[in-house]
C-alpha cells in the first residue's frame, strides 16, 4: 500500500471514530442493567447520568463502563430506592470508580454510605435535566423498607418511565402515573408486586423485569407474568436478555 492510501485509511478511521463518539455523546438512552438479582437503571442524556439503584455488588460497573462515554468519570445523580443489598450493594463500588455529585436516598444503616453529597428523601423531590423531569417520591411512611421505597417517575418529551423498586401491587395502583409508557415491574416480578387492579389505571406499552437468573425467590412469579399476559403488555427480562437498552 502506498503512502497516500495509508493516509486515506487513517483519515477515514479517525473520521469514523469521531462521528461515532459524537453520536454516542448525543445519545439519550435508558439501560436496565443486568446486575443479577437486583436493580440498577441508567438514564443517560448525553454525558449526564442519573442512575436509579446500584444493584447488589460491583457488577453494576460493567454496565456503566459499557454505556457511559469512556472519558466520563462523573455520575451526576444516584438515586437509591431503599436500603436493601439488591438495590444499594453496588454503591461503594460506584463511589470508588466514579465521582458522584449527588445521592438521593432513604436513611441508610451503613455509616460508610453517609457522605456530604447524600440527601435523604423524606417526601418527594423533583429535578430536571434538559427536557427530562425526574420525580422521586417516598412511596409511604411505612416502617417496611419495600413499602416505603423511593419510586421514580421520569417524564421525557415522548415517554413516561416508572421505576417501582420493590413496592406492592396496591402501591403501584396508587402511585404509577396513568400516562406511564415503560414500567419497571415491582419487586423483580414478585407475585405481590402486580395484580389486575394495579394495572387498571395505566396501560404501559412495555414492562421490564430486573431479575437474576436462577434466583432463590422464584422471580419472576407465574402470577406476575400472567397479569402482564392478560393485560397484553409485552415484557423484557434482564435474566434472559441481559442489559435492556431503550431510547429515552
Ligand atoms: Zn429488590
Q: What's the quick description here?
A:
By secondary structure, this protein is α/β, with parallel strands linked by helices. The protein has helices spanning 3-25, 59-67, 85-88, 91-97, 169-175, 222-230, 238-241; strands at residues 28-32, 41-45, 48-52, 74-79, 99-105, 118-120, 124-129, 132-138, 150-155, 160-163, 182-184, 206-209, 235-237, 244-247. The strands form two sheets. Strands 6-5-4-3-2-1-14 form a seven-stranded mixed β-sheet, with helices on one face. Strands 7-8-9-10-11-12-13 form a seven-stranded mixed β-sheet.
Structural write-up:
Helices cover 25% and strands 27% of the residues. The protein has 248 residues and is an alpha/beta fold. The strands form 2 sheets. Strands 6-5-4-3-2-1-14 form a 7-stranded mixed β-sheet, covered by helices on one side. A 7-stranded mixed β-sheet has the order 7-8-9-10-11-12-13. The chain is globular, with a radius of gyration of 19 Å. The mean pLDDT is 91. The structure holds zinc ion. Zinc ion (ZN) binds next to α3.
Which features would summarize this protein structure in a list?
single chain; alpha/beta; Metallo-beta-lactamase, Chain A; 7-stranded mixed sheet; 27% strand; binds zinc ion
SS field, number of helical segments:
7
User: What small molecules accompany the polymer chains?
Assistant: zinc ion
The dominant shape is globular
What structural class do the secondary elements suggest?
alpha/beta
Number of domains: 1
β-strand amount: 25-35%
Specify the helix fraction band.
Answer: 25-40%
Rg calc? 19 Å
Strand order of the largest sheet: 6-5-4-3-2-1-14
How would you name the CATH homologous superfamily?
Ribonuclease Z/Hydroxyacylglutathione hydrolase-like
Amino acid at each position: 500500500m502506498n503512502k497516500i492510501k495509508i493516509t486515506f485509511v487513517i483519515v477515514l478511521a479517525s473520521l469514523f471514530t469521531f462521528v461515532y463518539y459524537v453520536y454516542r455523546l448525543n445519545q439519550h438512552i435508558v439501560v436496565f442493567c443486568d446486575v443479577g438479582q437486583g436493580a440498577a437503571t441508567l438514564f443517560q442524556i448525553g454525558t449526564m447520568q442519573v442512575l436509579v439503584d446500584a444493584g447488589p455488588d460491583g457488577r453494576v460497573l460493567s454496565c456503566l463502563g459499557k454505556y457511559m462515554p469512556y472519558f466520563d468519570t462523573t455520575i451526576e445523580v444516584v438515586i437509591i430506592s431503599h436500603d436493601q443489598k439488591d438495590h444499594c450493594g453496588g454503591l461503594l463500588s460506584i463511589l470508588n470508580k466514579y465521582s458522584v455529585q449527588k445521592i438521593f436516598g432513604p436513611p441508610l444503616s451503613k455509616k460508610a454510605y453517609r457522605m456530604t453529597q447524600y440527601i435523604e428523601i423524606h417526601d418527594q423531590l423533583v429535578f430536571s435535566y434538559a427536557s427530562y423531569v425526574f420525580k422521586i417520591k417516598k412511596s409511604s411512611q411505612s416502617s417496611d423498607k419495600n413499602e416505603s421505597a423511593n419510586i421514580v417517575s421520569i417524564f421525557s418529551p415522548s415517554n413516561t418511565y416508572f421505576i417501582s423498586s420493590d413496592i406492592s401491587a396496591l402501591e403501584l395502583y396508587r402511585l404509577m402515573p396513568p400516562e406511564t409508557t415503560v414500567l419497571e415491574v415491582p419487586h423483580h416480578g414478585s407475585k405481590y408486586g402486580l395484580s389486575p387492579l394495579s394495572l387498571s389505571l395505566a396501560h404501559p406499552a412495555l414492562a421490564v423485569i430486573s431479575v437474576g437468573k436462577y434466583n432463590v425467590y422464584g422471580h419472576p412469579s407465574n402470577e406476575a407474568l400472567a397479569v402482564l399476559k392478560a393485560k397484553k403488555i409485552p415484557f423484557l427480562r434482564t435474566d434472559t436478555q441481559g442489559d435492556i437498552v431503550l431510547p429515552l
